[in-house]
Structures are given as C-alpha cells and as structure tokens.
Design brief:
- With 448 residues, the protein is mainly alpha-helical.
- It folds into three domains: 102 residues, Fumarase/aspartase (N-terminal domain) (Fumarase C, Chain B, domain 1, Orthogonal Bundle), CATH 1.10.275; 246 residues, Up-down Bundle (Fumarase C, Chain A, domain 2); 88 residues, Ribonucleotide Reductase Protein R1, domain 1 (Orthogonal Bundle), CATH 1.10.40.30.
- It has 19 helices and six strands.
- The strands form three sheets. A two-stranded antiparallel ribbon has the order 1-2. Strands 3-4 form a two-stranded parallel sheet.
- Helix 6 packs antiparallel against helix 19, helix 10 packs antiparallel against helix 11 and helix 11 runs antiparallel to helix 12.
- It is elongated, with a radius of gyration of 30 Å.
C-alpha cells in the first residue's frame, strides 16, 4: 500500500519505504526553516506559470493566497509538520490542497531547494553583517574609551614593543571589517528556478521574470550546474569559519589579559562564572566558549566540503546533508557575535597595570637601534651593538637605559620615554596617538 510520502514519486514503486528508511531520510525536522524562502520561491513560480499561460490568473491568485495563509500559520506556530511528507517543500505543497498539484509544473525539488537555499543564504549574509557591525561598534567604543592606555605589543607571546591598547583593538576592527566585506561580496546572484531536475523543461517558461521576482540578477545559464551547485553554501561557511577564527583570537587576548599574570582587564561578572570548588575563581567562560565554538564553524565547512567532493553531476541525496551544518554555522556565528559585542561593553581596563607592563625599558630596545642608525651606524651593526647592551643589562641587573646612557651618552638614555616613542611612530598604519585618533574617526564615519 502506498503511503503519503509516495504521492510525489511513488507511481513507479510497488512498495513504500520502511519506517526506518522514512525516519532516516526525512529532512523536515530541520529544513522547515526554509519555509519563508520556499513560499517566496513558490509565489514567484506560480506568477511565472501564469505569465506564460500554464496557470490561469485565478489559479495563480488562489495559490498565492494559499501560500500566504500557510506562511502565517507557520509563523504563528499553528502548522503541523508531517515527517511522512519528507521535507518542507512537500509539506507546504500538500497544505495547499488540490490547487497545489499544479504548482509543481515545470519544477523539480532539485531546483526548488537550490532556490530556497540561495534565498536563505542571502538573508543569512545580511544578518551576519548586521551582527558584525555591532561587534565593530563595541570594539571602537572600547578603544575610544581607553585611547591613552599603553600596553606591550607581543610577538611569540613575548613582550615586543609598546602600542596603544586602542591600536591593538583596532587591529580586530580591521579583521572583522574584512569579514563584513566577505559576507557582502555576493556570488549568489542567479536564480536556478526553471532548471528542473537536471535539464529544464519542454514547457515554455519566463525564467527572467521569475528571477526578477526573487531579486536575482538573472537566471542560471546551465541547468546541471544550477541544481548541483553548493558553492554559495561553501562561501558562506568559509566566511563564518574565518570570522570564527578572528573571534577566537580576540577571545584568547581577552582571556590572557584577564589573568592575574596580566591583569590588564576585568570582564563584567555577567560574562564570567565561578568555580564549584574554588570560591575565589572568576572564569572567562564566554570568551572560552567563543574560542571553542570556532571548532564547530570549521567542522561545518569541512563537513559540506566532504559531502560535495566526490559527487557526480547533478543532484545526489547526499546534498541533503548541507543544511544542518549551514544552519548551525549561521546560528553559532550570530549568537557568538552578539554576546561578544555585549561583553566588550562590559570590560574594564586596568590602566595602571597596563602601563606598568608597557614601562619595561626592554620594549624600546629597537628605538635605541634606530637612535644609532640616525647617527649613521649601519642597521645590522646597530642591532648587534644594542643586543650586546641587552645582554649586559640582563647579566648585571642594571636597567637598559642606564647601560645605554653610560655607553652612548644622555641622549641615548632619553630614548626610553614610552609616550615620546609612540608619538614618533607616525608612518601610515603605525600606532602614534595622532594616527590612532584619526583611525577612530574613520571608523566612526564608516560605521555611522
């Protein structure tokens, strides 16, 4: 006996799938999230069919009204999803009743899901950009609030040279702004509707009209590629993974800075947790979770790359496995961006602790090299000479400014002024106070 899931494809089959197969293969438990985009695609398809005379205007109008009513029921939580109908597409089509039987004319679930996913990803990109801009505003706010604070800059996690904390934070602004640009640059500009299962349709269609209805630049030019392509999903997953990497690096800095060993910042209590055993503990759990969730974003990208890597053209059921990683990455990214943006607004900077660390004279050893270069000494020779002074300072315990003053005179000792050293870093992109204030103004203008 045939079951309801066979109504779309069961004419050739004597027996339906077993209960285990139906449970194994259904996707409506997760692809219901495509309902708005599936309805948008179906509305455009119905209008397109009416335009070429396959549906009457009355039939198309009835279908569109039915689809809008279903959309309201779903949004209100009053729609019952039937796993026996496999997916979001068939659930919505079945809910239309008899008139819905004409809606699938000249359309396959292959080009239907390809369209739904493109529309969903397009919206997800916009949401990601909005969330990223909130994070950028929080970073700029924190940088501006602490614009005079100096910290050690690090390479190899060893103190290197002094920088303004604002300059450090603005480095992340650059990173996340690049992520915004990746989300904005959109290669997902063509509509696959009308490509059918693989080879289009013998029925006359106006694909350009349907593409315009869905705000695509035009229709896809190869029906096989249209239904087999998931590059736009991979583009999205790649960008979420890169953004996750940037979030993880920021989280790591915040974690280090909040330790007793650094003591540069204090994270608000609402974004930390305690210990079930040690009453003194204050753990940066939000930052740690941010760092950990990056692994999910990487994993989702690898999962879909792996699904796609060996598939012959065109559609294969393996491609059903693209949706859960896609949805998970979008959800994870948005949640992480939002909580990090909020947390940054609840970070207090310990200026005294930062500047005590930045006051280490060893951070200005390179400035002493520059001092000798300005006097005509070749750089390599100057580098070697100051390296020897550093070794002498470490061996004798005498401060480097004292050793340098004895060797090269009072002018050399005066090099060890952090504010003066920062003010001298005026090249484009360098962390002089003047440059940093100019960059803050630029970002204010960009984000306004």
């Amino acid at each position: 006996m045939k079951n309801s899931s066979q109504r779309t494809w069961g004419g050739r089959f004597a027996d339906g799938p077993t209960a285990a197969v139906k449970q194994f293969s259904e996707s409506v438990s997760f692809d219901w999230r495509l309902y708005q985009h599936d309805i948008a695609g179906s509305v455009a398809h119905a209008k397109g069919l009416a335009k070429v005379g396959i549906l009457t205007k009355a039939e198309a109008g009835k279908i569109v009204r039915g689809l809008r009513a279903i959309e309201k029921r779903i949004a209100a939580g009053k729609f019952v999803w039937d796993p026996a109908l496999e997916d979001v597409h068939m659930n919505i089509e079945a809910a239309l009743g008899p008139v819905g039987r004409k809606l699938h004319t000249a359309r396959s679930r292959n080009d239907q899901v390809a369209t739904d996913l493109r529309l969903w990803v397009r919206d997800a990109r916009v949401q990601a950009v909005h969330a990223l801009r909130q994070l950028l505003r929080s970073l700029v706010w924190l940088a501006e609030k602490n614009v005079t604070v100096v910290i050690p800059g690090y390479t190899h996690l060893q103190r290197a040279q002094p920088v303004l904390l604002a300059h450090h934070l603005l480095a992340y602004v650059e990173m996340f702004h690049r992520d915004c640009q990746r989300f904005i640059i959109n290669t997902n500009v063509e509509s696959p509707l009308g490509s059918g299962a693989i080879a289009g349709s013998t029925l006359k269609l106006d694909r350009e009209f349907v593409a315009r209805e869905l705000f695509f630049a035009g229709p896809t030019q190869n029906s096989m590629d249209a239904v087999a392509d998931r590059d736009f999903v991979l583009d999205f997953l790649f960008t979420t993974a890169v953004t996750g990497m940037h979030l993880s690096r920021l989280a790591e800095d915040l974690i280090l800075w909040s330790t007793a060993e650094f003591g540069f910042i204090r994270i608000g209590d609402a974004y930390t947790t305690g210990s079930s055993l040690m009453p003194q503990k204050k753990n940066p759990d939000v930052a740690e979770l941010t760092r950990g969730k990056t692994g999910r974003l990487y994993g989702n990208l690898i999962a879909v790359l792996t699904v796609m890597k060996g598939l012959p053209l065109t559609y294969n059921r393996d491609m059903q496995e693209d949706k859960e990683p896609l949805f998970d990455s979008a959800d994870t990214l948005l949640a992480t961006l939002r909580v990090m943006a909020d947390m940054l607004r609840n970070v207090q900077v310990n200026q005294a602790r930062c500047e005590a660390a930045a006051g280490d004279p060893m951070l200005l050893a390179t400035d002493l090299v520059d001092f000798l270069v300005k006097q005509g000494m070749p750089f390599r020779q100057a580098h070697h000479a100051i390296g020897a002074l550093v070794a002498e300072s470490e061996k004798t315990g005498q401060p480097l400014p004292q050793v340098a003053g004895r060797k090269y005179g009072p002018a050399a000792a005066r090099v060890f002024d952090v504010r003066r050293a920062l003010a001298a870093r005026t090249a484009v992109g360098a962390p002089s106070p003047k440059n940093v204030r100019a960059q803050l103004a630029r970002w204010h203008a960009t984000l306004s």
